[in-house]
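Lab notebook, bench 4. The sequencing result for the construct came back, and we need a structural model before the next group meeting so we can plan mutations. Quick request posted to the team channel:

Model the 3D structure of this chain.
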Amino acid sequence: MNKFILMLFFAFAIFSCGTDTDAGEFVVGSDYLAVNNKVILIDTVTVDMATINFDSLVTSSQSRILIGNYEDPIFGKVKSDSYFQLGAKSYSLLSGGSDTEAVNYVFDSISMILKYDNYYYGDTTQVQKIDIYRVLQKIKPNTDDDSFYNNSVLSYSPESLGSISYKPRPTEKDSINIKMDPVFGAEIFQKIKKREITDFTSFTEYFKGIVLVPSTTNSSSVIGFHTSTSVIRMYYSKYQSQEEKSYYIDFVISEPSKQFNSISSDKTGTLLQNLPVSNSKLSSMLTDRQGFIQSGTGVACRIDFPNIKQLKYISDKGAIVDAQLILKPVNNSYSEKYPLADSIQVYVADNLNRISSSLVNSAGVNVYGILNKKSDEFNENIGYTFSVGNFLQKEMLKTADAKSSLVLTLPGISKTVNRIVLGDQKHVNNKIQLKIYYISY
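Done. Here's the predicted structure in token form:
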């Protein structure tokens, strides 16, 4: 009797807030098809939002040199330095002939050439300043680890080997050329000329690597450069019989695992300044009814469905056949400088924010939140739509107390600094919408 009353209560609550749809309008499995079946639209299920912070992100082997910093009005100060080890195809000044020819070679100059890879974030109309510093320790991960992380740092010399102030043009097929200290270049040249450097090992013993560091005073953007085509180029000439010939040696990033971006953030004075450790969460109730995502720094948005198991009491036999979750970016949190990403990645995690898998649909295909770019006068239609029916059906049928959460990040989480601000279910203007289609049979 009690069970019957409970079922009646849930049915009344759902029907009072939702609508009925003939089953023929909905594509479901043949086991569910019957003349009397009804699909109920439920749109009152509670959705909780929170912000979490990953302990670290792998930023090595990402094929991008990421340099710059900017002060975000919402997320605080963001900065990215880039470390890498270099090597050359050849450590000889001579393409042929004897070592006696070496006396005819002289050092000219040395520069770093950075080629844009089309990525940028922030205000590129402002001047960017970069300094090159010499790394003082071997570029190698910690013991029992093959990776570097966004919070990895190495010691480096305080003396700049070269600097440049420039206005970024990241979408053009272009590069920037940073003139480096000629004394430093001449040292390398002489060591190669005297055969003190003959291979990669002897070169890295002398020169362990470099770090590119943006100025913290006048930079307002983060820029991406190619790892495969960015080089340090040492120019030299050969004089013989009053004829001059010019040559160069390129020092390139030969090991992608020895290049990483150190991405830091200072959230002081922001809603996220009290963001807890990685196994906890900051409820949207404490952040003006908003959830946050930021690549590079490890900030992610967590979604929970605390009452989803109650839906199984609607009927003795029933199932969630589809569900759409719509998340809305908060008005005025995005702009031309801080554009919205085209999609959001979704993962399944436990109560301690430990990710177990990507979110997939019933066919096993990864689910992404796709941005609807069709705006209206008040941007009410702009949002990300996720298909979460398969996930919610499994959560509803769980017999254990453990519940899974959804964790939202952005594509390129380890090599970008893009961010999004989302409204929760009680946000004034940009509320979460959850539409569940439930069939009883």
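DSSP finds four helices and 25 strands in the chain.
Will bring this to the meeting.
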